[in-house]
């Protein structure tokens, strides 16, 4: 007697390319491409059927047993009585782990010498906010607290990458502090840093305009100090959105900073590009900059919601499309954009990407006045900030951090039937809170990007078979 079988809950269909459609498993991340002639068979499998029945009904389709065997191997076809939620539980056990500290953001200055109107830090500041600079006393306590917590990481302190970000506003407005902190780290935590080797990084994202010879030498002398410069493309588009406070464009000064870094021997410099209407149709021009300056990586940042300016779905559709076009072009030159790459890696390696942001249980942010929180976007209004910096603060026992760590599509019933469940990571929790008042709501702005990327990945794979 033939077994009753059906399509499992996690199977998602992508229709129509060159006479084929795709059946994709949103948790195993397996994909099977089938000719359209099997479409009716799949429809019957959604209802539940038997192999005997299918063989009789589609007697002209000689490969039917083979196709069912392949669908079963990938978990796409299961016995009718299968409990599909068991697989979700298994995946959760592997991928939803307790919080584990990896990243510390020190907001060393929350003001800036530029006036970019899309800045998510400045646009989330309360009215009449007075900007601040971090003191060495605050930074030192934060560093001591960070190192005490690193060794407590239940996920294995040695294996994970650990990064201290010097962040702003414009962090180089407080370079004096950065220098003091780095020297303190190199003196006080010399052994730990040497033991961590490549796993320990310091990092800065800067607008580049304040880079002097002294700063460049300081950065270039350290192999574990990463630097990214914000450039939105060629001069005209960059200057439209990234002017100095006096209105003058900042491109020339940013490029000057980049060149000083190069002259002083800094080899690995990254480019960080924010995508808005000024450059959305010109992303390939970033590759011209890459050919000239040889960036270590190019990261594209879609706008995030701010208290003043929510991002529209129309914008996200366009960004998603342009990012895919850019990714396709850039990979021909061996350049892999990070945000797209995280999903691509998950898809190719068939490994669930449960979180797309370190704020979800792996990151701590210290504001200039020494308040601790999970996400730098909340720095101004101190949203999701919960303690004053103290060397005894226990990251791994904090309830806000524990809740954020749980926020993954694997724990969000709204996501269970989404094709992108396994590769998405859930987008931005802070944006979800801003839009809907809860980190547990779906970041629907980001959904557009995840789903569009998944569909592209499926058909990109097909085109390479
Ligand atoms: S929660 Fe959102 S704004 Fe905060 S760090 Fe994550 S992606 Fe960025
Ligand atoms: S956040 Fe959106 S795209 Fe991601 S899994 Fe949930 S519903 Fe799908």
TrEMBL record:
Q: Name one GO molecular function term.
A: metal ion binding
Q: Does the keyword Oxidoreductase apply?
A: no
- State the UniProt keywords alphabetically: Iron, Iron-sulfur, Metal-binding, S-adenosyl-L-methionine
Q: Gene3D superfamilies per the record?
A: Aldolase class I (3.20.20.70)
- Sequence ranges assigned to domain Radical SAM core in this UniProt record: 98-337
Q: Which cofactor does it need?
A: [4Fe-4S] cluster
Q: Which SMART domains match?
A: Elp3
What family does this chain come from, according to its entry?
A: Belongs to the radical SAM superfamily. Anaerobic sulfatase-maturating enzyme family.
Stated name of the protein = Radical SAM core domain-containing protein
């Amino acid at each position: 007697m033939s077994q009753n079988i059906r399509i499992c809950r996690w199977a998602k269909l992508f229709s129509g390319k060159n006479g084929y459609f795709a059946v994709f498993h949103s948790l195993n991340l397996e994909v099977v491409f089938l000719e359209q002639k099997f479409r009716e068979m799949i429809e019957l499998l959604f209802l539940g059927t038997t192999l005997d029945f299918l063989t009789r009904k589609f007697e002209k389709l000689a490969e039917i047993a083979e196709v069912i065997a392949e669908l079963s191997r990938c978990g796409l076809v299961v016995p009718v009585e299968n409990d599909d939620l068991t697989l979700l539980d298994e995946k959760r056990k592997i991928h939803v782990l307790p919080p584990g500290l990896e990243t510390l953001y020190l907001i060393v200055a929350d003001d800036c010498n530029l006036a970019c109107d899309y800045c998510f830090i400045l646009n989330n500041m309360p009215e009449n906010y007075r900007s601040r600079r971090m003191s060495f006393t605050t930074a030192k306590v934060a560093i001591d607290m960070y190192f005490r917590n690193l060794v407590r990481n239940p996920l294995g302190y040695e294996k994970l990458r650990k990064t201290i970000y010097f962040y702003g506003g414009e962090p180089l407005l407080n370079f004096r502090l950065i220098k003091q902190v780095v020297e303190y780290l190199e003196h006080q935590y010399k052994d730990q840093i040497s033991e961590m080797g490549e796993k320990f990084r310091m990092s800065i994202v800067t607008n580049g305009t304040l880079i002097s010879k002294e700063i460049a030498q300081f950065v270039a002398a350290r192999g574990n100090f990463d630097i990214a410069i914000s450039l939105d493309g060629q001069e005209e588009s960059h200057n439209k959105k990234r002017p100095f406070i006096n209105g003058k464009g900042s491109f020339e000064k940013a490029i000057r900073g980049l060149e000083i870094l190069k002259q002083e021997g800094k080899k690995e410099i990254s480019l960080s590009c924010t995508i808005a209407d000024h450059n959305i149709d010109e992303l390939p021009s970033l590759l011209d900059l890459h050919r000239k300056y040889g960036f270590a990586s190019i990261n594209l940042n879609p706008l995030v919601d701010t208290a003043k300016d929510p991002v529209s779905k129309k914008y996200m559709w366009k960004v998603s499309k342009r990012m895919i076009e850019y990714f396709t072009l850039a990979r021909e030159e061996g350049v892999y954009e990070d945000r797209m790459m995280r999903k691509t890696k998950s898809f190719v390696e068939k490994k669930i990407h449960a979180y797309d942001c370190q704020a979800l249980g792996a990151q701590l942010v210290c504001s200039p006045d020494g308040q601790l929180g999970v996400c730098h976007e909340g720095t101004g209004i101190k949203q999701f900030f919960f303690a004053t910096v103290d060397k005894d603060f226990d990251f791994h026992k904090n309830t806000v951090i524990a809740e954020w760590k749980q926020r993954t599509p694997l724990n969000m019933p709204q996501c269970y039937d989404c094709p992108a469940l396994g590769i998405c990571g859930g987008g931005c929790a802070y944006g979800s809170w801003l839009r809907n008042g809860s980190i547990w709501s779906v970041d629907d702005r980001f959904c557009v990007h995840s789903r569009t990327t998944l569909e592209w990945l499926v058909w990109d794979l097909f085109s390479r078979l």
